[in-house]
Recover the amino acids of this structure.
């Protein structure tokens, strides 16, 4: 029995090792090495933490803060948009059109990531049609000045990652089911109470998955930042990419990548912990134990 | 008005004063698109009454309950709870609680938190919540499970928690949608007794939905037998059993043998292919010669060896000859399946101690008393519904 179960898991393990453990392991390994010369990308005959020291410049620190800011703000905006949209799709919309709604959410994914981001570059250009239109109808009297700012990057990442938020939220809300919401209303809870005390707690795993699905790739994103952010939109992903592609310094790029991974994990853990603390009084308020009565 | 209602109990019609716990449906209709789930249903439930809505799946029981609870709005008619119309009143403001078919306990809360939920919505002080939750759990003997997650309970235990969660709010009306449907037979019979006791102790109006006639008969003050979104008969268990208002009710409550024939001139019997079936009371409302149905319950049919009756015994009303094709032991009773001619099966049931010793293949006679015969207008659908599968041995 044990052997069989282990045997069935082999493809999964193989997948994990080939496409996760090996690449990440390689990056970690490179990060302890150095760039041997003008034409070499990496060497590991001398191991040290020097690349980390090299990476941690004040500029790099600024870029990190900017990345965190874009990552957190982008995830929060995706949540704020995704929650009502997914709730409406899963609960309020006519069941017959739900398949269509999911297809619509996925529409941007039919185009390549780079292509749809460049699409936004065209829309947001100061001399583009959108800018002209806004001026034409008198909403602004100067050309649009959003391209190559942090706002443009934010807009781009929200657009690019929102479906990754909506889909797990949709599944989570759908799985809560009507009957528990009805039971809640039957017991005297209005819509708001039902949402806060039944729908959200039961959808929590989906909310966490959605937030991580957006937050993790967003923190490592460099295409959106490069296309829409220019110099203003500096993200760690861009620095890592430039070390690998332009400077050909794989060791330094690897050290930056490892730092990025650590920051992503640490920040997710810290934010999760903070949210848990914030929710604590709320949970305590509704905890009922009979023992204390005596 | 197409809704049939017996007035034998004298309880139908709208009371001038509807006290707390009274539920009145007044010409209520509910459509789902093209389909009509409930049609012009009128029903007056007294405070503290245990009423059952009984009927086959799809006859509109759940829809009726959901309209009283506030999850559906009727397309026509009025619903009053405790004398006040609840049309447009959202579910969360109605003084009514529901025990759902699938219990619908909150999986992320403990047993005690499930029970406390309604009280917390009403902003009851914490100390009072604890007391009332404890006594509600005592009521259903589940106090020691207070700290369990509701997902760690058996079906019967979840059922009790669902009951406690509703009762703790002290509603004037409790709605129960096939609450015992998912339990095994023994547990179900136990819970039937407990529910009935609880109801008479608390004096809360119970509207109990079931498709199990035995359940309805054993628990209810009155039973509303529903068919296609209407009430076919509304009466107490004795009346429904002894004097069903239609072949449909007769078929649905208990078992029946149905025999078709032409109504005799005196309209108190029918002429069938297997002789006269004679009743005591006439049906002057039906035209003589029209096709009618006689219904005889298996427990009123006597079965005996044909040779004992004499090969050429005179044929008389309420007696048919046939071949025994099945005998089954049901515990307290023995059940016999007799083939009469080639278009009629008669089921007889005798108490086991004095059941005749007969073997499959024996020639037998089945007979019954005139008082056991009920005559109804022909209702093919009802006969279908009342048809009993022959025992398989
Ligand atoms: N939400 C709904 N949408 C469409 N039809 C429904 C819905 N609910 C019930 N019905 C229909 O209404 C009729 C009555 O259903 P219901 O009240 O659930 O019956 P019961 O509880 O007696 O089995 C059925 O024919 C059912 O198909
Ligand atoms: Mg139902």
């Amino acid at each position: 029995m044990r052997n069989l179960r282990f045997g069935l898991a082999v493809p999964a393990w193989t997948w994990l090792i080939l496409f996760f453990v090996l690449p990440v392991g390689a990056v970690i390994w490179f990060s302890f090495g150095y760039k041997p010369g003008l034409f070499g990308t990496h060497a590991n005959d001398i191991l040290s933490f020097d690349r980390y020291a090299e990476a941690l410049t004040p500029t790099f620190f600024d870029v990190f803060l900017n990345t965190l800011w874009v990552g957190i703000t982008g995830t929060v905006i995706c949540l704020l948009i995704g929650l009502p949209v997914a709730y409406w799709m899963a609960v309020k919309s006519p069941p017959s059109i739900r398949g269509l709604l999911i297809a619509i959410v996925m529409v941007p994914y039919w185009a390549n990531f780079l292509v749809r981001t460049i699409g936004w570059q065209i829309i947001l250009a100061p001399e583009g049609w959108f800018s002209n239109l806004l001026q034409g109808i008198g909403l602004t009297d100067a050309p649009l000045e959003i391209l190559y700012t942090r706002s443009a990057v934010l807009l781009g990442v929200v657009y690019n990652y929102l479906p990754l938020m909506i889909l797990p939220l949709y599944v989570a809300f759908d799985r809560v089911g009507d009957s528990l919401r009805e039971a809640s209303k039957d017991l005297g809870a209005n819509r708001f109470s039902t949402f806060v005390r039944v729908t959200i707690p039961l959808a929590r795993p989906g909310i966490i998955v959605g937030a991580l699905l957006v937050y993790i790739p967003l923190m490592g994103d460099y295409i959106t930042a490069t296309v829409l952010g220019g110099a203003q939109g500096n993200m760690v992903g861009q620095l890592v990419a430039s070390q690998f592609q332009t400077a050909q310094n794989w060791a330094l790029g690897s050290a930056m990548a490892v730092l990025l991974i650590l920051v992503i994990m640490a920040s997710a853990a810290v934010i999760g912990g903070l949210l848990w603390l914030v929710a604590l009084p709320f949970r305590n308020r509704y905890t009922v134990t009979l023992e204390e009565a005596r | 008005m197409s809704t049939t209602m017996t007035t034998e109990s004298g309880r139908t019609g709208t009371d001038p004063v509807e006290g707390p716990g009274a539920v009145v449906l007044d010409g209520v209709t509910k459509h789902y698109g093209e389909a009509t789930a409930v049609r012009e249903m009128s029903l007056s439930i007294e405070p503290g009454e245990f009423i059952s809505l009984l009927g086959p799946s799809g006859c509109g029981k759940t829809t009726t309950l959901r309209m009283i609870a506030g999850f559906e709005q009727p397309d026509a008619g009025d619903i009053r709870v405790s004398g006040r119309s609840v049309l447009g009143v959202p579910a969360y403001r109605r003084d009514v609680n529901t025990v759902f078919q699938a219990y619908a306990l909150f999986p992320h809360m403990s047993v005690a938190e499930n029970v406390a939920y309604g009280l917390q919505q009403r902003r009851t002080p914490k100390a009072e919540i604890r007391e009332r939750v404890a006594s509600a759990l005592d009521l259903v003997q589940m106090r020691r499970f207070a700290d369990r997650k509701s997902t760690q309970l058996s079906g019967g235990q979840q059922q009790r928690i669902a009951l406690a969660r509703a009762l703790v709010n002290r509603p004037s009306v409790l709605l129960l949608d096939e609450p015992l449907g998912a339990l095994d037979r023994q547990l179900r019979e136990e819970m039937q007794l407990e529910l009935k006791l609880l109801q008479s102790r608390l004096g809360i109006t119970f509207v109990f939905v079931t498709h199990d006639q035995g359940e309805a008969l054993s628990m209810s003050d009155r039973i509303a037998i529903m068919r296609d979104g209407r009430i076919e008969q509304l009466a107490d268990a004795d009346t429904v059993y002894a004097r069903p208002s239609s072949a449909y009710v007769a078929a649905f409550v208990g078992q029946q043998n149905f025999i078709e024939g032409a109504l005799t001139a005196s309209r108190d019997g029918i002429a069938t292919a297997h002789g006269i079936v004679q009743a005591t009371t006439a049906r002057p409302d039906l035209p003589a010669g029209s096709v009618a149905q006689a219904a005889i319950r298996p427990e009123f049919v006597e079965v005996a060896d044909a040779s004992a009756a004499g090969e050429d015994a005179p044929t008389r009303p309420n007696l048919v000859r046939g071949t025994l094709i099945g005998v089954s032991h049901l515990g307290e009773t023995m059940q016999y399946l007799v083939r009469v001619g080639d278009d009629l099966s008669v089921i007889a049931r005798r108490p086991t101690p004095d059941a005749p010793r007969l073997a499959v293949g024996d020639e037998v006679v089945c007979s019954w008393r005139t008082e056991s015969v009920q005559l109804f207008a022909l209702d093919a659908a009802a006969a279908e519904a009342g048809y009993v599968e022959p025992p398989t041995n």
Notes: DSSP finds twelve helices and no strands in chain A.
